[in-house]
Amino acid sequence: MKLISRLFASLILLFMLAPLLVVLPLSFSAGPSMTLPIPGLSLRWYQDFFTGARWLLAARNSLIVGTLTTLVATSLGTLAAIGIAIGAPRARLLLAALCLPVVVPSVIAALAIYLAFIRVGLTNSLAGLVLAHSVLGLPYVVLTVLAGTKQFDLGLLRAAASLGASRFIILRRILLPLLAPAIGAGALFAFAISFDELIVALFIAGPEQFTLPRQMLASTREFLSPTLAAAAVLVSLVSLALLGGFALLQRRR
Amino acid sequence: MFRKLVLIACLVATPALARDLTVVAGGGGFQDNARKHLFQGFAQATGQKVVDDIYDGEQAKIAAMVKNHDVTWDVVMVEAPEMVRGCEDGLFEKMDWSIVDKAKFIPNGTATCGAGAVGWGVTVFYDTKRIANGPTTYAQLWDTKTWPGKRLLRNGAKMTLEIALLADGVPAADVYKVLATPAGQDRAFAKLDAIKPNLVWWKSGAQPLQLVGSGDVAFAVGYVGRTAKAAQDGAAYPLLWQTMLFSFDFWTVVKGSPNVTQAMKLVNYMTDAAPLRALAQDWAVSPATTAVAQDPAIRAKNKAMVAEHAADGLFIDTEFWVQYGDDLERRFAAWVAR
Amino acid sequence: MTPRKPVARLGLLLTLPALLLVAFALLLPLGLNLATAVRDPELAATLPRSAALLRQWDGIGLPEDAAFATLAEELHTALEDQRIGSLIARLNFERAGMRTLLLRTARAMPAAPASMALPALDPQWGDPATWHILRRASLGITPLYLLRALDLDLAADGAIIAQPAGQGVFLNLFARSFAIAVVVTGLCVLIGYPVAHAIAGLSPGWGRAAMALVLVPFWISILVRTTAWFILLQHDGPINAALLAFGLIDAPAQLMFTRFAVLLAMVHVLLPFIILPLVGVMRRIDRGLLRAAASLGAPAWRRFAFVYLPLTLPGVGAGALIVFMMAIGFYITPALLGGATDQMVSAAIADYVNGSLNWGMASALSVWLLVGCALIVSAAYYLAPSRR
Fold first, then answer.
1. How far apart are CA C210 and CA A18, in angstroms?
2. pLDDT (0 to 100) of residue C117
3. Residue C276 has what pLDDT?
4. Topology annotation, domain C170-387
5. Average pLDDT for chain C
6. For residues C381 and A133, is the Cβ–Cβ distance under 8 A?
7. Cβ contact A95:A142 at 8 Å
8. What is the CA radius of gyration of chain A?
9. Interface test with B, best of A222, A223, A225, A227 (most B CBs within 10 A)
10. Residue A21 CB coordination number (10 Å)
11. Which residue has the higher pLDDT, A158 or C311?
12. DSSP secondary structure of B72-88
C-alpha cells in the first residue's frame, strides 16, 4: 500500500515538473519549431532573447517594477507585521484587511484597480503599476515577517525598554536584526509576485511598462518560436533563485 | 539609504513627460517594412523621433485613452468602418487637409477623420504539403466531409457573416442586401452553426500563419499579404484570390493627442509617393495614393497587390458595418461563446 | 496578557501605512467597482437639459413638446462636438437600433428644430417606449448592467423580464466557470490527497526533498507553466510525438483549444496549492491516535476512514477553498489553451474592459462573481466542523 502510494506520488511529482523539464531542451533546439527530438543544440534562442529589443525592454521593465515593488511592499509590510506583533488592537481584523488582496480573484482586483487608477491618471504609469503590485505582494510580506516574529520572545523588547532603550533603538538594534531573515524572505516573495504578475499588468500597464509576462503572452500570439521557451527557462531560473534564497533565509531562523 | 529612497520616490512620482510621436498599426511584415521606410523615413527626414507599437484593432483602447485624456498613441491605422464610427464617437481628430494633401488620394481614399493608407484582404489558405487539394470556394470550405479539420476565422462578425452567406450560395453582389435583413442575418448564423464544432477563432494577424504552420488548424482565412509573403519565402500556401474579402485601412490621428501637428505631418509623409515606392520594393503594398497605386512598374512587380485582384474579391462594405456593426458584433459575441 | 496602551497605539501606527495602501489601492477600487456597475452618467452628461426635462416627466403618454425640441437640439450639438459616442453606445446597449435612430436624428436636425420635427423624422419618436428608455437613462443609476449580467432585462415599463432564449449568455458562462472550477478542485483533491499523504509519511530528509519538488512548480509563475503546456500540446508538439511513437494514436490528436487542455493545465498549475497545506496538516497529526485505534482492534481502513480522514478534513477544506477561488478567477489558461466555448467569466470581464469598453458590464459581471465567491466562502466557513 505504501509502495503504491509512493509510486503514485512520484508519478504526480514528475507530472508537475514535466512541462518545465520538456521546455528546457526545446529552448536549446537548433531547429525553428518546437518538436522533439530536437535536431541539434544551439544557443540562438537565448541569443534572440538577449538581442531582441522587445524582450530586453520587457526584462528591464520587469526588473525595475519588481525592485520598486519589493521596496514598497517590504517596508510597509514589515512595519505592519511588527505593529501587529507588538500588540496593535483588533489584530485579527487588521490582518484580514491586509490579506484581502490574496482572497480577491485576480481579475476582479485588476478591474477594480483599473477603474480606480484611470480616474487619477495612474494607468500607463510606473507609479501605478508599482502601487498595484505592492498591494498584491503586501500580504505575503506581512505573513512571512509575522511568522518571523513568532520565532523569538517579544519579552526581549520589553526587557530592553525597561533597561532604558528608546523605541527607535529597540527597533534598529534588536528587532530588525532578529527579523532580518524573515524580512529578506518576504522581500523575495514580493519580488516573485511582481515578477510573475500578468493580469493587473494587462489592464493597467502602458507600452512603457511592458513587462516580461506581457511580452511572453504577446509572443504566444505572434510567431511561436523557441525564443518563448528560452524566455520561460530564464524566468523560471529567476523564480528558482528566489525560491532558493527564500528557503535559505527560512532555515536560518 | 534615506536619500536613495527619496530619490526613488521622486523618480516614481514624476508625471509622464512629453513623449515621442507614436504610430500604431497591426504588426506583421507590413509594419516591419513600414517601420523602415515610412516611420524611420519620416524620422530621418525631419529629425523627429518616431516610435511604433502594435495593436489588434481594439477600439476600446483608443476610446479609453480619449475618454480619460491620457492619449499615448498619436497616429493609428484603423479599418474603414471603425474609422467612420470612431469619427462619430469623437475618437479621432478631423484630418487637417492643409497639412495632408487631399488631392493625391484615389477616389474614396479620404474621409473626415482619415487618410487612406493601404488596402488589405483575407483569403482562404492551407498547407498543400499536408492537404494536397483543398477547398477553393467558401461553399467547399463548409464541406467537412471531403475536407475534415478545423477552420480558423477572424473572431468577429465582420467578414465572418459575409463568408457564411457566400458559402450558402448568395452571389457576391447581393451579400450586403441579404445581410441587411433579419432573415439574412439569421441565415448567416444558421450557416455558421452548421460547422461550429470545426471553427476556431483568431484575434491577432499572425495566428493564421502560426496555426496552419503548426498543423493545429487545417484551413484558415488570413491576411493575404502575410500569406503571399510566406509563400514567397517557401511555404506551400496557395493564393486563392477568388475567396478574397478586401477593404482599405486609414491613417487617423487620435483626438487629444499632444502631437497633433507632427502627427498630421507624419500621415502626409506616409501617404507620399516616394516613401510608398520605397516600401513597395520590400512589401506588396496596395496604397491609396494614386501615383503609386497606378504606377505600372509597381503593379508589374507586386503581383500580390490587393488592388490587382479586386475584381475577383468582395469589397467589405464600410457603410453597412458602420450601421449594423454594433448589433451584429454583439450577437456574434453571444453566439461564439455559447 | 494585554499590551500596554502606548504599545498598542504604536502597533496601530506601524500598521497604518500598509493599511492605507490596501485601502487606496484595493478597498476603494473595489467600492468603485460596485458603484460602476450601477452608474449611468452618459445621458445626463451629453444631454443635460433633456435629462432634466425627462426627469420631470411623469412617464404617462409622451413628454411635452419642449422635451422634443430640446432633445433634437442637444443631439445636434453633441454630434457637432463629437461628444455623442458614449451616449450612443449606452443607449444602443439597452435597445438595438438606437444607434441608427440617434445618429440619423442628430444629423437631420437643424440647429433650431421645430418641436414636431422628431416624430415626423422617425415613428420611433412617437412611441412611448423610446422615451421611457431615455428617461430611465437620465436617472443617473441603473440596474441594467446587473440585470443583463444575469441574462435578465428591463421591459419597456421597467419590469424585470428574462432575455429571449437565444440571447442569454452569462448564466451559461457563470455555470460553466463554476463547473470547471468544481471539476478542477475535485481532481486536485483526489490527486493531491494521496500525494500529500505519501510525502507526509517520508523521513525528514526525503520529505524535504519531496517538498522541494513540490515547491519548484509552485514558485514558477502560472504564465510560464501555461506557456509550457501551450508548447507541449501543439499539433506537432512533444506530446503528440510521444503518443504517435508509442503507437497509441494513428494521427496527431487535436489537443489544443479543447476543454481537456484547459482542465489538464489548470490541475497542473493548482496541484501545489493543495499539496502544500495538506502536507502540513498531515504531518501534524498525532500518530498516537492512530496507534490507539490500532490497539483497540480497528483495521487499517477503519483507522483511515474514522481517524485519519476526519483529522485531515480541515486541511482539505482550506486547500480546496484556495484552489476553487483561484480556479474560478482563472483567465490566462483558458484563453491560451481553450476554444471559444471554454472561456470563463474572467475572459468576458477582460473583454468588456479591453475589447468593447463597457465598464458597466465588466463591473456588473465582477460584482456577481464576487458575490458568488463570498457566498461560497461563507458557506464553507459555516459548514466547517470546527472553527479555528
1. 15
2. 72
3. 87
4. MetI-like fold (1.10.3720)
5. 85
6. no
7. yes
8. 22
9. A222
10. 10
11. C311
12. --SEEEEEHHHHHHHHH
Instruction: Name the β-bridge partners of B114.
Output: B111
Query: What residues in A contact C373, CB-CB < 8 Å?
Result: 105
pLDDT digits (tens, 9 = 90+) for B86-98: 888 889 999 999 9
pLDDT of residue B314: 92
Question: How far is residue A94 from each of residues C19, C155, C233, measured CA to CA in Å?
Answer: 8, 45, 45
DSSP E strands in C23-114: the ranges are: 39-40
Listed in sequence order, the residues at least 6 apart from C98 whose beta carbon sits closer than 8 Å to its beta carbon are C88, C91, C92, C133
Tell me which residues of chain C, numbers 130 to 159, contact chain B at a CB-CB cutoff of 8 Å.
none
Q: Report whether B248 contacts B305 (CB < 8 A).
A: no
- B326 touches C at CB < 8 Å: yes
Residue type, B41: G
The rounded distance, in Å, linking the Cα atoms of C144 and A81 is: 43
Residues of chain A with pLDDT under 50: none
* C17 upstream amide cis, omega within 30 of 0: no
Distance CA C224, CA A19 (A): 10
pLDDT mean over B219-232: 91
Query: Distance between terminal CA atoms of chain B?
Result: 57
Q: What digits encode the pLDDT tens for the residues C8-26?
A: 888 888 899 999 999 999 9
d(CA B306, CA B285): 8
Residue B255 to chain C, least CA–CA distance (Å): 10
In chain C, which residue's Cα lies nearest the Cα of B94?
C82
Rounded to a whole number of angstroms, the distance from the CA of A30 to the nearest CA of chain C is: 15
**Which of C336, A221, C341, A111 minimizes the C-alpha distance to B56?**
A221
Contact C187, C267 (CB under 8 A): yes
ipTM for this model = 0.84
B245: closest CA among B220, B224, B229, B217? B224
Q: What are A96-136's pLDDT values in tens digits?
A: 899 888 888 888 999 999 889 988 888 888 999 999 999 99
Domain ranges across chain A: 52-252
All residues of chain C having their beta carbon less than 8 Å from the beta carbon of residue A101 are 22, 26
Chain B hits for A53, Cβ within 8 Å: none
CATH number of A52-252: 1.10.3720.10
Asked if B91 and C85 touch (Cβ cutoff 8 Å), the reply is yes
Amino acid identity, position A134: S
- Nearest alpha carbon to residue C54 among C96, C106, C46: C46
DSSP 3-state helix, strand, coil percentages of chain A (rounded to 5)? 80, 0, 20
**Interface check C227 vs B, CB under 8 A:** no
Residues of chain C with CATH 1.10.3720.10: 170-387
Identify the pLDDT of residue A34: 67
Distance from C-alpha of C21 to C-alpha of C193, rounded to nearest angstrom: 38
Secondary structure class of B255 (helix, strand, coil)? coil
Residue pair A108/A93 in contact by the 8 Å Cβ criterion: no
Phi, psi values for residue B152, rounded to 5°: -110, 120
DSSP code at position C60: S
Q: Which of A1, A132, A198 sits opposite C332 (nearest CB)?
A: A198
First CA to last CA distance, chain A: 37
Gap between the Cα atoms of C83 and B88, Å rounded:
8
Which residues are paired to B314 by β-bridges?
Answer: B245
Q: Does A35 touch chain C (CB under 8 A)?
A: yes
The one-letter code for the residue type at B320 is F
What pLDDT does B165 receive?
96
Alpha helices by DSSP H, chain B: 2-13, 28-34, 40-46, 59-67, 80-88, 138-141, 160-167, 175-179, 182-194, 207-214, 224-232, 260-270, 273-282, 290-293, 296-301, 318-337
